[in-house]
Amino acid sequence: MAENIGKPLGDKVLLKLEDTSDKKSSGGIILNQSTQTVIEAVVIAVSDGYPSQSGEWIKLSVIAGDKVLLSNGTTGEKIKLGGVTYNLVRDSDLLIKL
Predict the structure, then answer these.
(1) DSSP string spanning 60-92?
(2) Cα separation values, 28 from 23, 31, 32, 35, Å
(3) Are 87 and 17 in contact (CB under 8 A)?
(4) Is the CA virtual torsion 74, 78, 82, 84 positive or negative?
(5) With contact defined as beta carbons under 8 Å apart, do 87 and 15 qualify?
(6) pLDDT-derived band of residue 93, with 50, 70 and 90 as boundaries?
(7) Residue 39: how many CB atoms within 10 A of its CB?
(8) Which of 41, 59, 91, 98, by CA, is between 20 and 30 Å from 72?
(9) Which residue, among 9, 7, 87, 89, has the nearest Cα to 50 in the 3D structure?
């Protein structure tokens, strides 16, 4: 977990979205987050999990340092910590762990 960031609660995952400002498609088209349907991100911090309705503890599916893909429409809440912008999303919003 990154220094002085803290730990998300419940089923939340703190992500740093990958910079896509200079990526191009195979046809030379410049890609950015508004044209991509899937975004790559790095997991910065995760919660310890959350209790199910039966009381069983559910661990999240990723750990800090994992690379993940998520849908451009589910980038969660933007949070600025220490001058850096992060995104806080639900574990269930993640599509793939790379």
Answers:
(1) -S--TT-EEEEEGGG--EEEEETTEEEEEEEGG
(2) 9, 9, 13, 14
(3) yes
(4) positive
(5) yes
(6) very high
(7) 20
(8) 59
(9) 9
